[in-house]
Each structure stands twice: as C-alpha cells, then as structure tokens.
Amino acid sequence: MKHKIIVTGGLGFIGSHVVVELQNEGFEVIIIDDLSNSSVAVLNGITAITGKKPVFEKLDLRDKPSVIDFFKRHHDIIGVIHFAASKAVGESVNLPLLYYENNLNSLIYILQELYKKDTANFIFSSSCTVYGQADTLPITESESIKNAESPYGNTKQIGEEIIRDTCKVSENLKAIALRYFNPIGAHESAKIGELPIGTPQNLVPFITQTGIGLREQLSVFGDDYPTEDGTCIRDYIHVVDLAKAHVAALKRLIDNKNAENYEVFNIGTGKGSSVLDVIKSFESVANKKLNYKIVDRRQGDVIAAYADTHKANTVLGWKAQLNLEDALASAWKWEQKIRNT
Ligand code: WQD
C-alpha cells in the first residue's frame, strides 16, 4: 500500500523538487498550494519528470474551516511536509502581520489536525536564518538561536517552538525541522526550477537573469566584510540534494527511528562560498563574463553561514552529492529554458 503524504506549497521552488523525489520513492503525493507565489503549470513539469500527476488542491491554509474539511477528506495520510509560507525577508519587515498570520496560523491549523490522528509525521521547512550570525562556524544544530533579524526569520523560530511544544505533549505526532542553508539550482531536466516573481531578492536567480540579459547588472552587496575576498559567505546547496534530505527525514519518521518526537537538522553542503566565488563559478559554467558592480552592504546580511552537516550525514544517512558548479549549471540551463534561448 502506498504511503500518502501531503505537501503544502508543493508547487513552489523547493516543494516541487521534493514532490518529484517523493514520487520517485513511491510515495503518493497530495499537493496543497494557494498559488500566491507559484503556478499550476508546475504540475505539468512534475508530471513530465515522474510520469505521475500528483493530486492538487488549491487551498488557503489561513482558512481554518477549509483546513479541517481538507483533513476530513484526506484522513488516510501518513503526514505533512510543510513548505507553504511567505518567505521574502525584506517584505516581511514591511508587512509583519501578513507574515505572522500566514506563516503561523497555517502551521497551527495543520498541527491541530495532525494532533487528532492516531499517528502523524510532520516535516517543517525551517532556515539557517534562525542562527543569525553564528558564534561558531561551521554551524551545528546546537548553535544558539539569535533574535531574528526579520519577521520572516521570526516566524521560522516561533514555528519551531510551536512544533516542539506540541510534540512534547503528543504521543502520536513526530516531527523533524530541516534548517536549509541556501537552496539554488533546478532539476536536471529543466522542467521545474525557481520562478521568482518580480525582481529576484536572492543571489543566484539575479545572476542567471543578468547572464541572460534580463537584468542589466548584478549589484554585489558589499566587499568590505571580514572574509578572504570581502564578500559574504554562504552554503549554497543544490535544491535536488535538499529535496532528497526531505525523503530521508520522512523515512526516519515512518521507520519510527526517531530518538525524540522532535528533531532538528542542518541541511547544507558544509562548504562556504563567497559572492565572488559564485560569480566566478557562474562565469565558468556559462562561459561568459557577468556584469556586476560592488555597492553598499545590504541591511541584515550575516557575514558567513555554512553548515556542519555531521548530524544529517550520520542520523539521516543523507549527504549532499552535488557541488556549486553542478547547481549553477542547472540554474543556468533552467534560466535559458524559461527564456526559450
Ligand atoms: C546571498 C548573498 C547577499 C542578492 C535568504 C534568506 C534565507 C533563505 C535564503 C528563505 C548575500 C548577496 C544577494 C544580490 C548580492 N530564504 N547578494 N546581490 O540572504 O543568505 O538568505 O535567502 O528561506 O532565509 O535570508 O540569500 O541569495 O539573498 O544572498 O550581493 O542581488 O548574496 O548580500 O551575501 P541569504 P541571498
């Protein structure tokens, strides 16, 4: 009998790649998405890759009666992988109540439904942003949680606490939070990938859009940081490797090997790359010079963040297989595909 799993935000960048890997592993997937930051066309991309069309329901998870009705209709699920959330750091500073309502109410309503079930597994999309500027690098899961720099980051911190406290008093709900570092790239088929709406806030989509001529020039936010080349360092992980970490986490929950009811894992490559490293690597894979200039620092940026992946490697049995060049080559292939060049 196939395990049936709900993926909220399953038409988004990371969610769609996780749906593909779940289907590849034989799971039956039901996608919930409100289409506020995704397109129903992504379903075709997923189906073209796996040959299996996931069930899709458009649903606003802030609508509690609809959530209750949905879970009544899908009572035979083994759990939820929860991506659905607003995720633009800058926007969250200007629209805090939108972020707290969307990101926290939807989480609470889902957990209330899972709490009623005899057994339930829950995987939460968290972020290394909860660490702020870590005191120690590489960053382990025991690194202290800093005061969030943005309402977005705060919703991830509060979200983890809500899950932790719920699992503490529930016999049958088990959860894993995955703290992503910097997801980049696209599926090798170029049938799914990142679809930023408007001007990309993140580095790699801005680079590929500059490379394809959609953007005039990349602005590098500061080269006066205390790093080797003065630019910030991040742990850029291929989105397919990140997707496979979700399957590993789900299998751990299903196999009931969970030591505690709530566990946290850092999901990165363990390697730090500077902004200039990424630019140089892109120029190499795309075989073209990138037009960029150095500008002032961006408020809220941490100097460096890259993962200690020992816990995920040993406990989840998961390790990133792809490197920065693989990820940038896939991002570039995807950019060219969606611009039909
Ligand atoms: C990476 C580096 C920028 C754009 C954010 C969120 C995090 C997660 C991933 C959701 C930084 C520099 C960027 C540009 C640049 N999002 N940069 N010019 O800020 O590490 O993480 O996205 O979960 O929660 O905080 O990623 O790609 O925005 O920036 O110089 O046009 O690239 O200064 O050093 P970030 P990013």
TrEMBL record:
Homodimer. Its cofactor is NAD(+). Its EC number is 5.1.3.2. Keywords: Carbohydrate metabolism, Isomerase, NAD. Gene3D superfamilies: NAD(P)-binding Rossmann-like Domain, UDP-galactose 4-epimerase, domain 1. This is UDP-glucose 4-epimerase. Pathway: Carbohydrate metabolism; galactose metabolism. One of its GO terms (molecular function) is UDP-glucose 4-epimerase activity. InterPro entries: NAD(P)-bd_dom, NAD(P)-bd_dom_sf, UDP_G4E. GO terms for biological process: galactose metabolic process. Pfam families: GDP_Man_Dehyd. It is an enzyme of class 5 (isomerase). Belongs to the NAD(P)-dependent epimerase/dehydratase family. Residues 6-328 form the NAD(P)-binding domain. It catalyses: UDP-alpha-D-glucose = UDP-alpha-D-galactose. One of its GO terms (cellular component) is cytosol. CDD domains: UDP_G4E_1_SDR_e (cd05247).
